[in-house]
Specification:
Length: about 220
Amino acid sequence: MSTATMTEVAVHDAARIIGYIDLKSIGESEARKIMSYEHKALGYRPPPGSLASQAQAEAAKHPKGGPTPPDPIILKKAALSDAAKIESERGQPIPKSTVVDGIDLSNIGEAEARKLMSEEHKALGYRPPPGSLAADAQAAAAKHPSGKAEKKVDHQVLTEAAIKDAARISAERRSRSNSPPQVDVNKVTEEEKKKLQSLETKLLDSTAGTVAAEAQSIIDMKKN
């Protein structure tokens, strides 16, 4: 697998995990937020089967939600991940808005632009092309090299955005179908597993249940 393909696999796999929300804990307020985030990212009302429509259906059963509502940040990440998945399955380019959350190019400085370029370059295996988040950030930072001190972007946010944008570019370059590449975990090499693990560690709090974890398990069994 190429570096860019592994990035696609990691991002798609992470989206599956990030996108999981216990809908029994969702109330009308949370459902409205998910619908708003997903509608804005897609540019049209989320269709039946989307996370937003499922959340609304569930919230109708328990309008006030559960005793422990989901973290608003998790809700937004899940909604954006679902929007990217919907467009990918429709054979459409993944909306850039689903990967740049938390990054305002009008405030970005040179240091942050360099971080984006470095992470996206590593995730693609080649220099990010024009139209990439990294390239746009460099062009924007040239206008205000120091950025805005009070609006510095967290390195984790920059890293996640760079990796997700790399996956978006790879999908568009690979084919217009944008269907995520299939991975046979039985054939993943040790080197590929390490790369997947590195990527998924940057995207998730834990790699439990990921493709990287499954590949590691199979590699361990082969060694015994």
